[in-house]
Specification:
87 residues, alpha+beta, two-stranded parallel ribbon, 2 strands, 45% helix, elongated
């Protein structure tokens, strides 16, 4: 099982993490507009709701509904450093 876990971690590092590290510098310029279905979902939430965006990237969803308390987290420092601290 340990060998399988190591292979999985290696695969993830090569095909997920390395890709995001490579695109992080231009991520915000190509992914700036919220997807309509996600935007609609967030706008339908009740005032005071709490949302968590794991893998938030540039934080484009954090300010969609100012009545929802949103927390964003991302593994890639560059993408989150471009997120607005007031989002």
């Amino acid at each position: 099982m340990a060998d399988s876990n190591e292979r999985g971690a290696d695969y993830e590092a090569q095909h997920v993490h390395s890709v995001y590290e490579e695109i992080a510098h231009h991520f915000s310029s190509t992914r700036y507009k919220p997807w309509p279905i996600v935007e609609r979902f967030l706008k339908e939430q009740k005032d005071g709701a709490v949302g968590l965006d794991i893998g938030c990237g540039n934080g484009k969803y954090l300010a969609v509904n100012p009545n929802v308390f949103m927390v964003g987290s991302d593994r890639y420092v560059y993408t989150t450093s471009s997120a607005s601290p007031n989002s």
